[in-house]
From TrEMBL, chain A:
One of its GO terms (cellular component) is integrator complex. Its main location: nucleus. It comes from the Eukaryota. Residues 304-433 form the Beta-Casp domain. SMART domains: Beta-Casp. It comes from Parnassius apollo (Apollo butterfly). The lineage of its organism: Eukaryota, Metazoa, Ecdysozoa, Arthropoda, Hexapoda. This is (apollo) hypothetical protein. The keyword ATP-binding does not apply. GO terms for biological process: snRNA 3'-end processing. Keywords: Cytoplasm, Nucleus.
From TrEMBL, chain B:
It comes from Parnassius apollo (Apollo butterfly). The keyword Nucleus applies. InterPro entries: Beta_Casp (IPR022712), INTS11-like_MBL-fold (IPR041897), IntS11_C (IPR048662), MBL (IPR050698), Metallo-B-lactamas (IPR001279), RMMBL (IPR011108). Keywords: Cytoplasm, Hydrolase, Metal-binding, Nucleus, Zinc. GO terms for biological process: snRNA processing. Coiled coil: none annotated. It is found in: Cytoplasm; Nucleus. This is Integrator complex subunit 11. Residues 16-210 form the Metallo-beta-lactamase domain.
Amino acid sequence: MKLYCLSSDAAKPCFVLSFKELMIMLDCGLSAHSVLNFLPLPPVPSTRLASLPNYTPPHVNDPLLEGELKECCGRVFVDSIPEFCPPLDKVVDFSQLDVILISNYTCMMALPFITEETGFKGQVYATEPTLQIGRFYLEELSAWLAAGGAGTAARRWKELLHVLPAPLAHAQRPRAWRRLFSGEAMARALARVRVVGYDERVRLYGALDATPVSSGFCLGSANWVLRTPHEKIAYVSGSSTLTTHPRPINQAALRGADVLILAALTQTPAHNPDHMLGDLCVHAALTLRGGGSLLLPVYPSGVLYDLLECLSAHLDGAGLAHVPLYVVSPVADSSLAYSNILAEWVSAGKQARVYLPEEPFPHASLVRAGRLRHAKQLHDDAFCADFRQPCVVFCGHPSLRFGAAVHLVELWANNPAHAIIFTEPDFPYLEALAPFQPLSMKAFHCPIDTSLNYAQANKLVRELRPRELVLPEQYAAPTGAGGAGGAGGGARPHVVADGPVTVARRGAARALGVVRRAARGTLCGALAAGAAPRDLRAGLRAAPLVAQLTLRDARLELCAATPQGPLPAPVPQPVALGAPDVAALVRELAREGLGDARVEAGADGCIVHLPRHDTLLHVERHATHVFCEGRAHVRQALRRALAACTPHV
Amino acid sequence: MPDIKITPLGAGQDVGRSCILLSMGGKNIMLDCGMHMGYNDERRFPDFSYIVPEGPITSQIDCVIISHFHLDHCGALPYMSEMVGYTGPIYMTHPTKAIAPILLEDMRKVIVERKGESNFFTSQMIKDCIKKVTAVTLHQSVMVDNELEIKAYYAGHVLGAAMFWIRVGNQSVVYTGDYNMTPDRHLGAAWIDKCRPDLMITESTYATTIRDSKRCRERDFLKKVHECVEKGGKVLIPVFALGRAQELCILLETYWERMNLKYPVYFALGLTEKANNYYKMFITWTNQKIRKTFVQRNMFDFKHIKPFDKSYIDNPGAMVVFATPGMLHAGLSLNIFKKWAPFEQNMLIMPGFCVQGTVGHKILNGAKKVEFENRQVVEVKMAVEYMSFSAHADAKGIMQLIQYCEPKNVLLVHGEAQKMEFLKDKIEKEFEISCYMPANGETCTITTPTKIPIDVSLRLLKAEAVRYNAQPPDPKRRRIVHGVLCVKDNRLSFLDIDEVCDEIGINRHVIRFTSTVRFEDSGPAIKTAEKLKTLLEEKLQGWSITISDGNISVESVLIKVEGDNDNTKNIYVSWTNQDEDLGSYILGLLQSMVQ
């Protein structure tokens, strides 16, 4: 069993597991950190961005670099359509993949890069909410980016990294960065996804069962358990032990695995999501009271639902019930409507509402009451006519490089009454804001990442007791060396286990400690009835067996052998488990009428000679060799005599 | 225990009160727990005393599975759990769990409040019963205990209807409940994978109908409603709040839209919106088309159907009114009926079954005058139509499902004996599998082949695979493995001899036999060997025979020819004890060749 790691972003994992001749991809996360190096794509032209000065590195005169780089407040940005960092494609041939298992919608954005135009022929499995919400994310991404037009890609700067200032100089392998796929490729990739439910056993080519079990992180989020009758591998990605809107994590299913692969832990280990939500509500109320408006750059699903629920309730309590809430996204209507028909995927409390019947999420009633409004884009006529300030706007993209948020930041940047609150943990907020500097509007950082933090992960690992733990290198890093953990002196990693720990690095292949010894089959009743097991030692009984194998649909069946050609069906013969007792042998031979046996000492044992029957028995420690030139009945007598005085089953 | 036993307590050669007992692998499972709407006495509930004459029933039943919310499938559940005292697990899908208590409550009201029965379950009992239910999702594999596993598949019949696959050890059964193989106005078609169960228990309501006549019935219904309103008549459709009501609403809504009709359609009850909400929230259980378009327009937000107000009863002109309750025994539907019945141009459409003693039952039986408690007599001049709209699979659909699922046996329930007989014949002929149709209380035993799980050593399998793959491919080739069957901790494994020796820490001892045959043949030894090989190949077709360096191997039996170019050759045949059959056969063959 081998594990390949294709992603350097632990929060957007991509692994390939080779097991039982299958190549199984676990998640295909798309790292979007790269987009921060690009200049924002405003949905409506921005004179400020357009008039930023060109940047040329000192002492470099390269006409090809002309116009590729711009400078803003001392930082250099690439002026081109933003690019993403897909999983590594050199280590594993995507056409050889048999299966892709997706854990949640934040970890599937690179799917078209894997499945389209790569010769991919396998199956993709995800839960229904993962597919639907993943589709919303991808559609939104593709709509925001398409709005920026299709300018030529800046390429030259990638050759000149060494002369560029930080952080551009430290960009990781920018030559592998790629633009987002086309809408058609995206649709084709999503059409491949087969929908599965929690606790559904998916047979993978008969070789093993894959089961998605609830991971408690978001709607439809799953951990995958791969199981054969003898081996169990648990892939835990994006899990949460907190109580939010999705179904709670199913830990029992993950227990006692041979291998536990742990990925997508929290990206903001120093921030408690509950405190952040509290802070956010306070900042929001203060800003709105001061007449300012609030911008929350968010994804179109996930924490958004919790934010709508908590913020609306908090504002009601703070006497700000009149403040309108806006969700601006090309998929806002679908996302809000869809979340309310996922009764089977939400927490018990929300599910109980469905039995009343009421919508599981309160945002449906907020929409009906006119409190919450949604629009596909900022310049929708109906939306513009309706737009009132102060207000709260939820819109994408959290990187502030494309989407409606770019325009709103541009619009509100100079007004200190307004505020922007970052909740999504995917991007460092100061970097996200860098191209908008200087900025007068207030910026707050309240990251809400409900994924396991290190303490919760350690607790989980202790409870699950895997035989082997696999971690991306980030989590195996000593606590002291990381930025967030402070200056601890010990070299203790973030996540530890009692058993062996394997560390996965991007591009690396790791052999895992699972050794297969047996396959599960069925034994037919007739064959079992014919066997007469004898005690070998206490608790272990055995019998020789001749079985005929049938391997159909990857099912292994053992039945009684059939006759073939001139021979009858083979019958099990006794299996000797030690040398015959020579004295007993001579007695047995005499009883069979072969009384002329003479025993001579040999090289490694002795030789029993039956001169009348022209027969020699070389009895040695590990073998008995019978040279029999006598008639058939003599040999049969010899066999009976040997069986009688040899320990056997 | 390789037997599967099935005893219908209801639905055995009849329709109504589905309740089937299934025993396999030491587990007892109750499939559905329905109530018969045609009886007023104890016959309406399944005969639970059959399971255990007295004493607790829980220890006799490992779980109860409810396929869908129709009362003939779940009506006796509160009775069983709250009055008989069953406390074990109960499984149904989420929509069934949401909707069943409402239908149970409606029925309870009819029986208790209308007919004054006292020995019936209460509202609280319904609530307590539903609290004990475990809701399952489609395809979720639920382990009831360590050995019993169940899994739900989409059945299409009504919202939340499911078929259940049930497994104990190596035995499995599929229970279809009621299902529909063609997608209809709001539901999709039933689907199941090729799970090859030992037994499929299928409904057979329309066992002899070859084409589902549902479309015809719908057309008929719409035509009658349209004709009536065109003449200025009023149409009354008594319904219960959930189930058929939504189906008929969709039907009228789409027809009104298509024909651009303006006659008012009313839905009269407080529950309407709430009822439709169930459908809105479980939209993932409806068909593809409704699911795809629900963001733009929820199918259950009706445009043409308006809420009813009591004052509309006396409004002049045509209208269509859906009113509760469904059996005309009380409430608004009865009030409307009293007003509209004496007029010929009006029409009453009964879309469901009516309990004996209700006004609905009397009218359906052709009563022309109905007398009420206060001696008020109403003449029934309005047209009366009965129409059943339940979606079931037809004969073709049933055959289709059997083909998908590939069961080894089929058992028919929920149908009429005569029709079952016809379908049974057809199934047995077409699929060459056994088909059963036990009557209520009759036990049907199905024997399945014994299959014992066993762990087979990979070393053994790999060695065999190497041998097998070395030969030209032939799917018919026999694949024989010699090894040792081990029993340890009650678990079986099939190991290589060396592995067993390692396990118990001794060295393997090989017993080998070698015999010589003298053969008169001139020429080099290698030529003789080749001749022998030809002979062996002719006699031993299907065995792998190879030759190298003048040594022939027939699988693991070795044959060596020695001798100079003179006439006599020594042929040595050598084999291990394990290959006695083949070795002695070859020796005998060579010996007979020499003589």
